Amino acid sequence: MSELPTIDWWGDGIKAYPDNDMMKSGAVPNQSLVVKEHQTLINNIANLGFDIVFIPFSQQLEDAKKYDFVFTRDHFMCNKDKEVVISNMKLPQRLEETDFVKKTLSDLGYTVKILPENAHIAEGGEFFYLPNENMLLAGCSRNNQAGAEKVAELMNVNSLHIIISEGYHLDTAISPIFNHHHDCIGLMCAEEVFDNNNYEIVKNLCKHNNWELLSQLNTDKEKSLKARAAMNCLTLPGILISTDNINDSRTIEFIHENNIEFIVSEVSQFNLSGGSVHCLTNELF
To answer: CB neighbours of 46 closer than 8 A, spacing ≥ 6?
Structure first.
């Protein structure tokens, strides 16, 4: 996870990116809540027995008002062999962010791999790594195909599945659910952000791998945004951490049937900038 900046996070108001439908342009987060929600999320993860590595929020990033550095998910992808692939960001506003994670990861003993510049665009929020299956699910909104394929190559996965949605990152469209052995057993899906062809790809992927497809369809925009923020979980073996309760009876039933621990850790102020719990965290193996 990233540390918070020493100055108010988006204290001058959020400047929304044109391709991010979840950002609230002009909103000014409540700084007291920013600090409280960030610390509560840290506590909830630590109470589960996980170690947390904090990446410093540099003075250079503060001076440049690169506030979305807190969304650590976007900066890299990690596999079980302690290999990390650093993202090539699509948005020019975020290009320098990844420079500030490399030293921390290298000092921890991870092999840091760099994507070739320009032609290979890839952001961490566009990927889900399924460790037991050694599989990579990738979006293609802020990724390009060359970037997704190069990440898959550098991570040495068995298979890559590209899933196109209207979500600015794939983690705003789907979320895997893992059992206690870290096997993927289900896939939550916001059906409204897929066209028919790509929804069929999701359905066939679930059928082929014997995953439960847990679709939600919210045609109302505000309901969709709320549901997608909740779906953006930190998904760990037998655990889901979300900003909010999931309002879907079949998904709730599936979670209970498989003894998945569901924890609500509200990150409402970070939601204003288009991110949620998955975005604020990134697993190291």
So the answer is: 52
Provide the strand spans (E) within 179-277: 184-190, 212-216, 234-236, 239-242, 261-264
- Helix or strand or coil: residue 284? coil
Burial grade of 83 (CB within 10 A; 0-12, 13-18, 19 or more)? middle
Both tokens of 230, joined, read: 């909740």
Alpha helices in 48-126 (DSSP H): 59-63, 102-107
The residues that bridge with 253 in the sheet, in sequence order, are: none
**Cβ contact 183:212 at 8 Å:** no
Cβ atoms within 10 Å, residue 154 = 20
Domain 31-280: what homologous superfamily? L-arginine/glycine Amidinotransferase; Chain A (3.75.10.10)
Residue pLDDT, tens place only, 160-197: 999 999 999 999 999 999 999 999 999 999 999 999 99
DSSP 24-41: -TT----HHHHHHHHHHH
Tokens of 79: 């596999």
pLDDT for residue 191: 98
DSSP 3-state of 83: strand
Q: Let me know how long the chain is.
A: 285
pLDDT at 77 > cutoff 90: yes
Q: Return the ∠ at Cα 74 (arms to 187 and 147), rounded to 5°.
A: 85
Q: Where are the domains of the chain?
A: 31-280
Task: List pLDDT tens digits, range 206-251.
Answer: 999 999 999 999 999 999 999 999 999 999 999 999 999 999 999 9
